[in-house]
Specification:
Elements (H helix, E strand, L loop, with lengths): L8 E8 L5 H18 L5 E6 L4 E8 L2 H8 L2 H13 L5 E6 L8
Antiparallel strand pairs: 1-3, 1-4, 2-3
């Protein structure tokens, strides 16, 4: 359980983009998907990440399981499902995680 309210549960997500679409996928995560995450009430933190030339990730956190499930089935998921066949080279890996601690600004 996290020591920062609202960050007890999360997801660690990994994406492998097609090489010819890596820049476009990165822009999607840092643009439209980030805008949608900012609008989600139950999403406490949402970090899009670039892990390598074609490998991307997202770490996000939520206050409870209800918020985590709303996010999993929300507008970001819809956007990514719509774009995945064209932009991604492999299935998305979604791992639910328990957040043990956090250092965030107060």
């Amino acid at each position: 359980m996290s020591d920062h309210p609202g960050t007890d549960l999360g997801y660690l997500v990994r994406f492998e983009a097609r090489p010819e679409h890596a820049e476009e996928f990165g822009a999607l995560l840092s643009g439209a998907a980030l805008d949608l995450a900012r609008a989600e009430e139950g999403t406490t933190v949402w970090f899009p990440l670039r892990l390598g030339p074609t490998t991307f990730g997202v770490f996000d956190a939520f206050p409870d399981e209800d918020a985590r499930q709303v996010h999993l089935h929300g507008r970001i998921a819809d956007l990514l499902k719509a774009e995945a066949p064209r932009l991604l080279a492999a299935p998305v890996e979604v791992r639910p995680v328990d957040v043990l601690g956090a250092k965030l600004p107060h």
